[in-house]
Each structure stands twice: as C-alpha cells, then as structure tokens.
Amino acid sequence: MATGNINVSVENIFPLIKKFLYSDHEIFLRELISNATDATLKLKHLTSIGETNVTYGNPTIEVKIDKEKKQLHIIDQGLGMTAEEVEKYINQVAFSGAEEFLEKYKDSAKDSGIIGHFGLGFYSAFMVADKVEIITKSYKDEPAAHWVCDGSPTYTLEAHDKTERGTEIILHIGDDDAEFLEENRISELLVKYNKFMPVSIKFGTKTETLPKPEGAKEEDPAPTQEVDNIINNPTPAWTKQPTDLKDEDYKGFYRELYPMQFEEPLFNIHLNVDYPFNLTGILYFPKLGQDMNIQKDKIQLYQNQVFVTDNVEGIVPEFLTMLRGVIDSPDIPLNVSRSYLQADGAVKKISSYITRKVADKLNSIFKNDREDFEKKWNDIKVVIEYGMLSEDKFYEKADKFTLYPTVDDTYFTFEELQEKIKDSQTDKDGKLIVLYASNKDEQHSYITTAKDKGYEVLLLDSPIVSHLIQKLETTKENISFVRVDGDHIDNLIKKDEETISKLSDEEKETLKTDLEKVIPTDKYTVQLEAMDSGASPFIITQPEFMRRMKEMQQTGGGGMNMFGNMPEMYNLIVNTNHELIGEIFNSKTDKKKERLIKQSLDLARLSQNLLKGEELTSFIKRSYEMIK
C-alpha cells in the first residue's frame, strides 16, 4: 500500500481564486485590511503579555493610491514577517497564520480580537492585480524581505532595505479593474467593509478648520491644517459595556450607522453574551409603519468588527429583519452559503438568544413605562405580531405585553380584554366574541352601531391581522374574532335584542320575493331581520370565514390559493322594522319599488366601498334625478 501527500498546484489555484473564491472582486480590500489588522493586533497582544519589548505605540493602517503607476498600497505597522515566515505563510497557499497564532497563544489571545479564519484571504489580491509585492520587516531583529509574484507559479523573494516594522502590500492593478485606482471607489469600500475595524485606517488627508487666533477680525478666514483622514471608528458603541453608554451615545451610533435616516429610533436593545457563544451588538426599533418589506436588510453583520453582510436572514429571526443595527460574532463563518448558516448549530443558538433578548426588552419597557409603550405601539406592532406568528417561543413571551387597541384609543392586553367583555360579548354558546375593525373610516357606521349597543370594538389594522387572528383563535380557548362588518356579529345582535318584526311571516316572504327580483342573488344572500327602527335599512356583511381566507391569501397565506378564484359573496341584512322597508313593501308600482331597492342597496354598497366604476356613475346620476 502506497501513501503520500497531495500537493495543491499554485498554477491551478490562481484561476480558482480569480473566478470562484469570492463572488465580488471588491472583497479583496476587506481581506487585505483584515490581514493588516491581524498583524497589528498580534503585536499588541505580544507586547501586552511581555513576549516582546518593542513599543506598540498608536499604529495605523494606511491605504494609498498611486494612479500614475497603477498601484494600490496597504501599509501596516504590525509585527511583520521574516523571509522564513513569508515562505511559510505566503508560499504555502491557504495556511492561516492567524489560526496558528491563536492556537499557540489560545489561552491569552482569547480576547485579543484577532480575526483569523481568512486562509486564502491574501490571494484575493490577485483578483484585481496583475502583480503583487510584499515588503515586510519583522518586529524581530531580522532583515526585511521583498516578495514578488505575477500570478504565475513562480515568485521571487529577496532581502530589502526597509527599516520600519510592518508590512506593505503593493497591488499592480490590472486594466480590467482600474476602478480600484479611483479614490471614491476605495473610500466607498473602506466605509462599507472597514468602518468599524479595531485599528485606525488612514486614507489620504482632510482639511481641518482651527479656532481663530485672539484679536482676529470677524471677516478674517479661520486658519486650516491638513490632517490624516481616519475613515473608521475603532471603538464603536457595540464594543463597549452598556453601563458605559448613555441614551445619547446610542442615538449617536444610530446616526453613524444610518446618516441619511433623520428619524430617531424608538428604543434600542444592547446584545452582549460570551457563553455558550460570543455575540455583541445593538438592535434598534425604528418607526416601522405598515410596510413589512421596505424595512428589511438594515441590520449589519460583522465578524470581529469586519463587515460581512446586511442580509442576515438565517442568523436573525425573520421577524426581526425589519429592525436595524449591528450584530457582531466571531462564531459566524464569513464566506459560507445561507443553507449552511441555517443548519449551523451555533447560528441557531444565536437566533434563539436574539429572540429571547428582544422579548425580554419589550416586556421590560411595557412593565416600566406602559404609557410610553402604548404611544409606540403602532410603530412596533408589525414586528411583534409577525414574531407571534412565526416564533412560538416569542409568542409565549409576547402574549404578556401585546396590546389590543380599541377604536377609542384604549389599550388592553389580552387578559384585560377578556375581563372587560366577558359579561357583554358572548354568543348563545357562551363563546367570547371579540369585535374588531380594520379601517375606522370605511367601517364607521358598523362601529357606531356596535358601540351604541355597548360593545368594545378593537382596531386591528396591520397587514397580517388575519393570520394573527387565526393563531389567537387556535391557541386561545372558546374565543372568536369577528370583524365589525362580518356576518357573525348577528349572533351578538340577536342575543342582545329580541325585537318583534312589524311584518308577518307571510309579508316577509312577499318582501323577500320583491327584493330578490332586483338584487343579484349570485352576489347577495338576502336575510330579513327585525332590528331597532333606528338601525340602517340595508346592511351588507361578508361571511367571516370567506373574507378572512381571502385576506390571508393576499398576504401570503400559503395553501389559500383556492379562495382566490371564488366569487365575492355578501350577506344583505334587511331591517324589517325600518320605515323605508315599509315603504318598499307598500309601494303601489313595481317601478317605484325597484328604484327604492336599487337606491338602498347602492347606499349600503357605498358604505362598504363596493360601489365603483359604471355602477357608481349610475348611482350618482339616479340620485340627482331623485333629488329633482
């Protein structure tokens, strides 16, 4: 039996790097800056544990463009490399120096912030460069080294006269990637990927205005000076302890994350855990309104302050992707597929932790300042309702602080609501009936009728209310939600009032026949009911089940498509005690009877926003004729 080592051919590796290693060429800058950060933080750690007596100082990473020579420079003041280390870490493709360092110093390096895990990161430079140079001087007392490679299997490595500690990488940018010689493009990438790197990054200079000297005249210009342009914040808010931050610090960081967002966030949640995984971050609740899609992809994911993505689906529970902020975890791999993330055990634990933390924060705000919580309810309810639908563990916690507002702007928890209506809103079987409106203006007449009878009417107007109601009816016992213009409200009305009809049974049959001659029975089911004479003569309701299924199908109900092709059906409740119904019944001519029925039906349709187009035009014309 033969044994041996499998050798990776560099000649074959380069085409793979150029085409497949990363989806975007721009990622090369993130990788090289990250390696420079590693080198700097390694030196910081060695000096902190007394492994070396060199002075750490206040190092920076500098990025420079030489457009004339078509060169991009990344320069650090980290621990550098000897020629031997260049051979080991650069020429042996995919050997991760950061991982070896962490293994060697695993006990003391735990909190040093070294990024690691990059492996082939350096070779991403060849995605944009025809030739790459490394000029490096180790913190050890050894000569500097100069490595050059043009993307072929051959390279040169020789001594160099560099005297300052650190590494300079020079990329000779290819013609196809000339965009990376533009200051605006590099600045854009540095802000995108390295805005919060833990080592200061210098890119060019900027003009700074100085205070005017004493005795200067008002019209004299203020003096200026050129200073280094540091593009990053090495110590962003999420890297600090919550006890060290004030409310203004959180708001300031929000403005730093979203400079074009002018509205302040409603509140924030600071994430900080080191067991069983490492995770820090700050999540913000913005004013969300009713749109569930426009808000997504605002959370930024970092790995040790290196930007990874703003598509956090699979890491953050889907209902929280409408929030904003930052999540940073070294336990999340950088370059893997979404399916891998969703199957990863650590990622699942992170998702569960974030869900629990958000629920606990909301419950705390509710308990400590309910009045403020109620004021913010309309701006956060979509997230909470979506969470109740999609996450059972969140539902269990949210049930305690979820609010149910009435049309009169009174807020109940579900427990409070049950207590409020238990004696007045039950049907003949003893089931609790929760009345709600989805639009105060469109359902105003129905709301008024219900309130006149002493019923509480909730205002549930979020885009996913049908799904939420279905969930509540499944998880709560002996309760039913009925929209205020739905057909099931009849159960309450009939129970509430035993009104005697002015018409006999025989007269009712005659009236129903007259009505069905005019009213399209393929759309309306005519029901004669004896109600108070002050109630409307014609009331249109929609079968609760049918309406709810259609709403769920429109908002992604899944499996509800069968209801999409079904015709619209409505109930037409005719109040036999209304004066107008008596006039219809007693009309001497069929023409007058038809005109009164049509006009009454159209008025009822108008109140439900069902009268449109040609039918609306015809109704307006008929109304003017009747006025004349």
Task: Report on this structure.
It contains 19 helices and 21 strands. Strands 5-4-3-6-2-1-7-8 form an eight-stranded mixed beta sheet, covered by helices on one side. Strands 9-10-13-11-12 form a five-stranded mixed beta sheet, with helices on both faces. The protein is elongated. The longest helix has 24 residues, at 345-368. The relative contact order is 0.06. By secondary structure, it is α+β, with helices and mostly antiparallel strands. Strand 14 and strand 15 (411-412) form a beta hairpin.
Which residues sit in consecutive blocks of at least 5 with pLDDT less than 50? Answer: 1-9, 94-98, 112-119
- Backbone structural class: alpha+beta
Major sheet characteristics: 8 strands, mixed
Helix content: 25-40%
Our estimate of the beta-strand percent is 15-25%
Mean pLDDT: 83
